[in-house]
Q: What sequence folds into this?
């Protein structure tokens, strides 16, 4: 078996020092571009591959970031992961992905897996079940950078990247009001974690500002999925005074809402429907779904930038990293286009 090339082989080939090769491979700014290019070309010619194990033993870094999400099958999280990985890769980092499937136990196992793998930091979005924060606090106690995105929690004092969820709930409701809807219902998750609670507060604020009543019966708390939207809409349609518009806690809930409406020969925008997240199916269903775009690529990029900022700052710095709040965007489509 052929011997694996080392940085000593590259140094010998170019007649330069091993330390110069190492600095060039690590893109240190004090090394000239011509030397960097010569080292990279020689490394490629010799089929050199860095020994990450040896490197981590020397530097104390694995160049691996743990990324924890509820599900990579959801377009929003997949988009965050894609952007995050692409951005970090340009700085020499890889990601280790763990999906919780909305389970607290699975989330706790994921954090344990990351810590055992000696990742350099963790970027996470919480499960719907998460109330116990001890596993996240353990990450911070061990001195690992921890960034929480999208689904944040007031009980954690760590860097965060999110949208203004109250504003997003307000945007969705105000859009329906501007389209002429007056009896607006809301189907959301029974798990009242912060983002869904804040969106609901935004909904109530928009109603109040427009002088419209908040109707208890119009607030449905169920599962955050298609079935939750479907069952919630059936409840709403059984009321004596049915709503003329329904907000879904996310686009999957909105899909269930539209399904139930169709079964009752109601086609939006006769009853307006809007969701959150701008999933990849949202503009392709009939009617196309109005939604609040949470700017997933921007969230992923900001998470990556925040991680790099954390690891580059002075160890003695006790200044808190300010949270990053990304603007949400209203996408008006056929499902709410009452005024057309």
A:
């Amino acid at each position: 078996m052929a011997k694996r090339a080392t940085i000593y082989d590259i140094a010998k080939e170019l007649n330069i020092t091993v330390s110069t090769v190492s600095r060039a491979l690590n893109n240190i700014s004090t090394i000239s571009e011509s030397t960097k290019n010569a080292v990279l070309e020689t490394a490629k010619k010799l089929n050199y591959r860095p020994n990450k194990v040896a490197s981590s033993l020397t530097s104390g870094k694995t160049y691996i970031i743990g990324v924890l999400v509820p599900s990579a099958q959801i377009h929003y999280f997949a988009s965050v992961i894609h952007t995050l990985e692409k951005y970090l890769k340009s700085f020499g980092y890889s990601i280790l992905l763990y999906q919780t499937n909305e389970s607290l136990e699975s989330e706790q196992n994921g954090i344990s897996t990351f810590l055992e793998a000696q990742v350099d930091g963790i970027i996470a979005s919480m499960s719907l079940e998460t109330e116990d924060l001890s596993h996240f606090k353990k990450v911070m106690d061990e001195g690992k950078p921890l960034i929480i995105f999208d689904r944040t929690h007031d009980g954690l004092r760590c860097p965060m990247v999110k949208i203004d969820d109250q504003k997003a709930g307000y945007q969705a409701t105000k859009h329906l009001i501007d389209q002429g809807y007056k009896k607006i219902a809301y189907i959301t998750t029974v798990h009242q974690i912060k983002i869904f609670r804040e969106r609901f507060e935004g909904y109530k604020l928009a109603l109040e500002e427009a002088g419209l009543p908040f109707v208890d019966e119009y607030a449905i708390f169920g599962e955050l999925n298609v079935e939750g939207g479907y069952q919630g809409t059936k409840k709403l349609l059984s009321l004596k005074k049915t709503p003329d518009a329904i907000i879904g806690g996310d686009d999957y809930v909105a899909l269930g809402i539209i399904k139930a409406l169709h079964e009752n020969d109601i086609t939006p925008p006769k009853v307006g429907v809007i969701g959150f997240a701008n999933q990849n199916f949202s503009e392709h269903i009939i009617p196309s779904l109005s939604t609040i775009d949470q700017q997933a690529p921007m969230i992923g990029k900001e998470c990556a930038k925040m991680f790099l900022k954390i690891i580059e700052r002075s160890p003695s710095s006790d200044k808190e990293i300010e949270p990053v709040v990304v603007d949400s965007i209203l996408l008006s489509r056929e499902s709410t286009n009452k005024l057309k």
